Amino acid sequence: MTGVGQKPLLDVLNGAVLDVPPMWLMRQAGRYLPEYRALRAEKGGFLELAYDSDCACEITLQPIRRFGFDGAILFSDILVIPHAMGQDLWFEAGEGPRLAPKLSESNWRDLKPQPQRLDPIYDTVRKVKAALLDSTTFLGFAGSPWTVATYMVSGQGSKDHADARTIAYSQPEEFGALIDAIIANTVDYLSRQIEAGVDAVQLFDSWAGSLSPTQFDRWVIAPNAAIVTALKKLHPETPIIGFPKGAGAKLLDYAKGVGADAIGIDETIDPVWAHENLPKGLPVQGNLDPMALLAGGEPLEQAAHRIRAAFAGRPHIFNLGHGISQFTPIAHVEKLISLVRNG
Questions:
Q1: Residue 293 and residue 280: Cα distance in Å, rounded?
Q2: How many C-beta atoms surround the C-beta of residue 129 within 10 A?
């Protein structure tokens, strides 16, 4: 055991190897929690909650009170950046987010920036920071430029991100200008989260896996590296987690090229392979399959033990390979915590 301090998760992000890995779960504040569902039913839709700093603070703290996770993640959404850049944003019940105008049909330069839309989020950060125990690491986040751009171009999520991929090939200079604008907005957004009180930040590239290797280099590695470089100049002591979901073997190039302090890995990555191939000493976060947590029982136990064994001797934050399912039983989460903390 090395590097034990006041905040175990932050210690691991700074390179500490702990006998018991700290843990948090992506989407830990959300629909699987009855207290979240009750608040949402009372207050309204997702976006209304995210922009209400009192509600967003309460939701951020709910899984910390219930489970005592080592990390609290800000309750918000990656699409607040295009909202602040001037697109309209709303959520269709049962269908997900919508953005307008679609950039496949309009020019992003015609958008009228609305940076004040982000002010409630900074208020949320300050309120959460004031309420957290000193031992809990507070994580902020943003979507990575490629993933954010796919939504901005199509106006919603898609299976193959064909609109954004086509424009990236056919109009690389124009698409690159959009990516640069997202980078600038994201750096400012994360910097202000850090100034308001988060201890570390995560970059979610949820759709990184849809790109070919050369496109991955251009639209995933380079933009994330630009964000990391800029943030390190502004906040050199703040760790950054990079999470390129679906990267597969390109994860190695991402780890070397982006310069993040830690790498999140999804459930499709073999943890043994990751440990053997990622740079020695690089902190890793992950990578339990959310469906193993949903299933519970022996599959959950076997998967949790395998991950812990694979990353023994490396700085490791136990997490899921993606977000927790809304149908996950509370008892399964409690079992997972016991497995991770008690062996």
A1: 29
A2: 15
Active-site annotation holder among 27, 165, 218, 314: 27
Given this model, what pLDDT does residue 3 score?
Answer: 45
Most distant CA atoms of the chain, gap in Å: 55
* Residue type at position 201: V
- Please provide the DSSP assignment of 191-208 as one string: HHHHHHT-SEEEEEETTG
Which entry of 52, 70, 77, 261 is annotated as an active-site residue? 77
The CATH number of the structural domain formed by 8-342 is 3.20.20.210
The one-letter code for the residue type at 315 is: P
User: What average pLDDT values come out for the chain (343 residues) when binned by 10 residues?
Assistant: 73 97 97 96 91 98 98 98 98 88 95 98 98 97 98 92 96 97 98 98 96 97 98 98 97 98 98 97 98 98 97 97 97 98 88
Give the per-residue pLDDT at 159: 83
Least Cα distance to 281 among 261, 299, 265, 306 occurs for 261
Residue 77 annotated as catalytic: yes
* Active-site annotation holds for 31: yes
Residue 109 catalytic?
Answer: no
**Contact predicate 14/318, CB 8 Å:** no
**Paired tokens of 92:** 């269709």
Known catalytic membership, residue 65: no
**Known active-site residue 341:** no
> What does the pLDDT read at residue 2?
44
The domain locations on the chain are 8-342
Structure tokens at 169: 């090939």
Q: How far apart are CA 30 and CA 324, in angstroms?
A: 9
Of 36, 151, 189, 254, which one is the catalytic site residue?
151
